[in-house]
Amino acid sequence: MPESAWKFLFYLGAWSYSTYLLFGTDYPFFHDPPSVFYDWKPGMAVPRDIAVAYVLQGSFYGHSIYATLYLDAWRKDSVVMLVHHVVTLVLIVSSYAFRYHKVGILVLFLHDISDVQLEFTKLNVYFKSRGGAHHRLHALAADLGCLSFCLSWFWFRLYWFPLKVLYATSYCSLRSVPDIPFYFFFNVLLLLLTLMNLYWFLYIVAFAAKVLTGQVRELKDVREYDTAEAPSPKPRKAE
Q: Would you kindly state where each structural domain of the chain is located, as residue ranges?
Protein backbone atom coordinates (compact mmCIF):
# COMPACT_ATOMS: atom_id res chain seq x y z
CA MET A 1 0.00 0.00 0.00
CA PRO A 2 2.77 2.58 0.71
CA GLU A 3 3.98 2.11 -2.88
CA SER A 4 0.52 2.89 -4.27
CA ALA A 5 0.13 5.86 -1.93
CA TRP A 6 3.31 7.61 -3.02
CA LYS A 7 2.70 6.75 -6.69
CA PHE A 8 -0.79 8.23 -6.40
CA LEU A 9 0.61 11.45 -4.95
CA PHE A 10 3.33 11.66 -7.60
CA TYR A 11 1.04 11.00 -10.56
CA LEU A 12 -1.58 13.38 -9.18
CA GLY A 13 1.00 16.14 -8.79
CA ALA A 14 2.63 15.44 -12.18
CA TRP A 15 -0.68 15.33 -14.04
CA SER A 16 -1.95 18.45 -12.28
CA TYR A 17 1.21 20.30 -13.27
CA SER A 18 0.99 19.22 -16.93
CA THR A 19 -2.69 20.18 -16.89
CA TYR A 20 -1.70 23.61 -15.62
CA LEU A 21 0.90 23.97 -18.39
CA LEU A 22 -1.58 23.02 -21.12
CA PHE A 23 -4.68 24.85 -19.85
CA GLY A 24 -3.44 27.46 -17.36
CA THR A 25 -0.80 29.09 -19.55
CA ASP A 26 -0.53 30.34 -23.11
CA TYR A 27 0.76 27.03 -24.48
CA PRO A 28 -1.71 25.94 -27.24
CA PHE A 29 -0.38 22.39 -27.65
CA PHE A 30 -3.54 20.52 -26.62
CA HIS A 31 -6.05 22.46 -28.71
CA ASP A 32 -3.62 22.95 -31.58
CA PRO A 33 -1.28 19.91 -31.72
CA PRO A 34 0.56 21.05 -34.91
CA SER A 35 1.77 24.07 -32.90
CA VAL A 36 4.31 21.86 -31.12
CA PHE A 37 6.49 22.23 -34.22
CA TYR A 38 5.83 25.89 -35.00
CA ASP A 39 9.11 27.85 -34.92
CA TRP A 40 11.03 24.69 -34.01
CA LYS A 41 14.81 25.11 -34.15
CA PRO A 42 17.63 22.83 -33.04
CA GLY A 43 19.07 24.02 -29.74
CA MET A 44 16.13 26.30 -28.97
CA ALA A 45 15.65 27.30 -25.34
CA VAL A 46 13.45 25.08 -23.14
CA PRO A 47 11.09 27.14 -20.94
CA ARG A 48 11.85 26.71 -17.25
CA ASP A 49 8.34 25.51 -16.37
CA ILE A 50 8.58 22.70 -18.95
CA ALA A 51 12.13 21.84 -17.82
CA VAL A 52 10.84 21.31 -14.26
CA ALA A 53 8.31 18.75 -15.52
CA TYR A 54 11.06 16.95 -17.44
CA VAL A 55 13.37 16.72 -14.43
CA LEU A 56 10.60 15.28 -12.24
CA GLN A 57 9.40 12.77 -14.82
CA GLY A 58 12.90 11.70 -15.84
CA SER A 59 13.86 11.07 -12.21
CA PHE A 60 10.69 9.09 -11.60
CA TYR A 61 11.09 6.78 -14.59
CA GLY A 62 14.78 6.29 -13.88
CA HIS A 63 13.81 5.04 -10.43
CA SER A 64 10.98 2.95 -11.91
CA ILE A 65 13.44 0.99 -14.05
CA TYR A 66 15.54 0.20 -10.98
CA ALA A 67 12.45 -0.71 -8.93
CA THR A 68 11.10 -3.06 -11.62
CA LEU A 69 14.44 -4.88 -11.85
CA TYR A 70 15.42 -5.08 -8.18
CA LEU A 71 12.53 -4.14 -5.86
CA ASP A 72 9.16 -5.18 -7.31
CA ALA A 73 7.82 -8.72 -7.44
CA TRP A 74 8.25 -10.20 -10.91
CA ARG A 75 4.88 -10.49 -12.68
CA LYS A 76 3.67 -11.80 -16.03
CA ASP A 77 3.73 -8.33 -17.59
CA SER A 78 6.94 -7.17 -15.90
CA VAL A 79 8.91 -7.44 -19.15
CA VAL A 80 6.39 -5.18 -20.91
CA MET A 81 6.45 -2.83 -17.91
CA LEU A 82 10.25 -2.68 -18.04
CA VAL A 83 10.20 -1.97 -21.79
CA HIS A 84 7.61 0.75 -21.16
CA HIS A 85 9.79 2.45 -18.54
CA VAL A 86 12.89 2.28 -20.75
CA VAL A 87 11.04 3.63 -23.81
CA THR A 88 9.51 6.42 -21.71
CA LEU A 89 12.85 7.44 -20.21
CA VAL A 90 14.52 7.40 -23.64
CA LEU A 91 11.71 9.59 -25.00
CA ILE A 92 12.00 12.01 -22.07
CA VAL A 93 15.78 12.39 -22.33
CA SER A 94 15.97 12.50 -26.14
CA SER A 95 12.97 14.80 -26.60
CA TYR A 96 14.56 17.25 -24.16
CA ALA A 97 17.97 16.98 -25.82
CA PHE A 98 16.59 17.48 -29.34
CA ARG A 99 14.05 20.12 -28.26
CA TYR A 100 10.84 18.18 -28.81
CA HIS A 101 9.76 19.22 -25.31
CA LYS A 102 6.44 20.68 -26.45
CA VAL A 103 5.08 17.37 -27.70
CA GLY A 104 6.62 15.72 -24.63
CA ILE A 105 4.36 17.66 -22.27
CA LEU A 106 1.36 16.58 -24.32
CA VAL A 107 2.44 12.92 -24.10
CA LEU A 108 2.86 13.14 -20.32
CA PHE A 109 -0.54 14.78 -19.86
CA LEU A 110 -2.32 12.09 -21.88
CA HIS A 111 -0.70 9.24 -19.94
CA ASP A 112 -0.53 10.33 -16.30
CA ILE A 113 -4.30 10.63 -15.77
CA SER A 114 -4.77 6.86 -16.13
CA ASP A 115 -2.04 6.21 -13.56
CA VAL A 116 -3.73 8.58 -11.11
CA GLN A 117 -6.95 6.58 -11.37
CA LEU A 118 -5.15 3.24 -11.22
CA GLU A 119 -3.36 4.05 -7.96
CA PHE A 120 -6.54 5.61 -6.52
CA THR A 121 -8.41 2.38 -7.26
CA LYS A 122 -5.66 0.20 -5.77
CA LEU A 123 -5.67 2.24 -2.56
CA ASN A 124 -9.41 1.82 -2.15
CA VAL A 125 -9.12 -1.91 -2.86
CA TYR A 126 -6.72 -2.14 0.07
CA PHE A 127 -8.80 0.12 2.34
CA LYS A 128 -12.15 -1.61 1.76
CA SER A 129 -11.15 -4.65 3.82
CA ARG A 130 -8.94 -3.07 6.44
CA GLY A 131 -9.31 -4.24 10.02
CA GLY A 132 -11.21 -7.35 8.92
CA ALA A 133 -14.34 -5.32 8.12
CA HIS A 134 -15.91 -4.45 4.79
CA HIS A 135 -16.04 -0.71 4.10
CA ARG A 136 -18.73 0.10 1.57
CA LEU A 137 -17.49 3.61 0.79
CA HIS A 138 -14.06 2.35 -0.24
CA ALA A 139 -15.63 -0.54 -2.15
CA LEU A 140 -17.79 1.91 -4.11
CA ALA A 141 -14.78 4.20 -4.71
CA ALA A 142 -12.79 1.20 -5.98
CA ASP A 143 -15.57 0.20 -8.41
CA LEU A 144 -16.01 3.75 -9.70
CA GLY A 145 -12.25 4.18 -9.94
CA CYS A 146 -11.97 1.00 -11.98
CA LEU A 147 -14.68 2.18 -14.37
CA SER A 148 -13.15 5.64 -14.81
CA PHE A 149 -9.71 4.05 -15.25
CA CYS A 150 -10.93 1.88 -18.12
CA LEU A 151 -12.71 4.78 -19.82
CA SER A 152 -9.81 7.21 -19.42
CA TRP A 153 -7.32 4.63 -20.67
CA PHE A 154 -9.26 4.26 -23.91
CA TRP A 155 -10.04 7.97 -24.33
CA PHE A 156 -6.67 9.47 -23.44
CA ARG A 157 -4.21 6.78 -24.54
CA LEU A 158 -5.96 5.10 -27.45
CA TYR A 159 -8.04 7.95 -28.88
CA TRP A 160 -6.48 11.33 -28.04
CA PHE A 161 -2.89 10.08 -28.12
CA PRO A 162 -2.99 9.00 -31.81
CA LEU A 163 -5.30 11.89 -32.71
CA LYS A 164 -3.09 14.58 -31.22
CA VAL A 165 0.43 13.25 -30.67
CA LEU A 166 0.94 10.77 -33.51
CA TYR A 167 -0.81 13.10 -35.94
CA ALA A 168 1.49 15.95 -34.94
CA THR A 169 4.73 13.94 -34.93
CA SER A 170 4.17 11.82 -38.05
CA TYR A 171 2.39 14.32 -40.32
CA CYS A 172 2.51 17.90 -39.07
CA SER A 173 6.20 17.76 -38.20
CA LEU A 174 7.15 17.22 -41.85
CA ARG A 175 4.92 20.06 -42.97
CA SER A 176 6.51 22.51 -40.50
CA VAL A 177 10.09 21.20 -40.71
CA PRO A 178 10.55 19.06 -43.86
CA ASP A 179 14.04 17.89 -42.87
CA ILE A 180 13.28 17.46 -39.16
CA PRO A 181 15.95 15.24 -37.53
CA PHE A 182 15.29 11.92 -35.81
CA TYR A 183 11.83 11.68 -37.40
CA PHE A 184 11.75 7.87 -37.57
CA PHE A 185 13.47 7.43 -34.20
CA PHE A 186 10.80 9.33 -32.27
CA ASN A 187 7.85 8.02 -34.24
CA VAL A 188 8.94 4.40 -33.84
CA LEU A 189 9.20 4.87 -30.06
CA LEU A 190 5.81 6.61 -29.91
CA LEU A 191 4.27 3.82 -31.97
CA LEU A 192 5.80 1.25 -29.62
CA LEU A 193 4.26 3.16 -26.72
CA THR A 194 0.89 3.00 -28.48
CA LEU A 195 1.20 -0.77 -28.96
CA MET A 196 1.96 -1.25 -25.26
CA ASN A 197 -1.08 0.87 -24.38
CA LEU A 198 -3.17 -1.38 -26.61
CA TYR A 199 -1.66 -4.51 -25.02
CA TRP A 200 -2.59 -3.35 -21.52
CA PHE A 201 -6.04 -2.25 -22.65
CA LEU A 202 -6.73 -5.78 -23.92
CA TYR A 203 -5.51 -7.03 -20.54
CA ILE A 204 -7.95 -4.64 -18.83
CA VAL A 205 -10.85 -5.70 -21.07
CA ALA A 206 -10.12 -9.39 -20.37
CA PHE A 207 -10.19 -8.73 -16.62
CA ALA A 208 -13.42 -6.73 -16.90
CA ALA A 209 -14.99 -9.60 -18.86
CA LYS A 210 -14.11 -11.99 -16.03
CA VAL A 211 -15.76 -9.66 -13.51
CA LEU A 212 -18.93 -9.33 -15.62
CA THR A 213 -19.21 -13.09 -16.23
CA GLY A 214 -18.70 -13.91 -12.56
CA GLN A 215 -15.29 -15.56 -12.96
CA VAL A 216 -13.93 -12.91 -10.59
CA ARG A 217 -16.32 -12.07 -7.78
CA GLU A 218 -14.77 -8.86 -6.55
CA LEU A 219 -12.40 -6.22 -7.75
CA LYS A 220 -8.79 -6.84 -6.81
CA ASP A 221 -5.45 -5.46 -7.90
CA VAL A 222 -4.89 -7.82 -10.82
CA ARG A 223 -1.15 -7.17 -11.02
CA GLU A 224 -0.73 -7.73 -7.27
CA TYR A 225 -2.11 -11.26 -7.53
CA ASP A 226 -0.56 -12.06 -10.89
CA THR A 227 2.90 -12.59 -9.50
CA ALA A 228 4.95 -15.22 -11.27
CA GLU A 229 4.83 -18.12 -8.88
CA ALA A 230 8.05 -19.75 -7.86
CA PRO A 231 7.96 -23.51 -7.22
CA SER A 232 7.22 -24.10 -3.55
CA PRO A 233 9.55 -26.39 -1.63
CA LYS A 234 8.32 -29.92 -1.11
CA PRO A 235 7.19 -30.68 2.46
CA ARG A 236 9.61 -32.77 4.47
CA LYS A 237 8.54 -36.00 6.03
CA ALA A 238 8.10 -35.95 9.73
CA GLU A 239 11.13 -37.48 11.40
A: 1-213
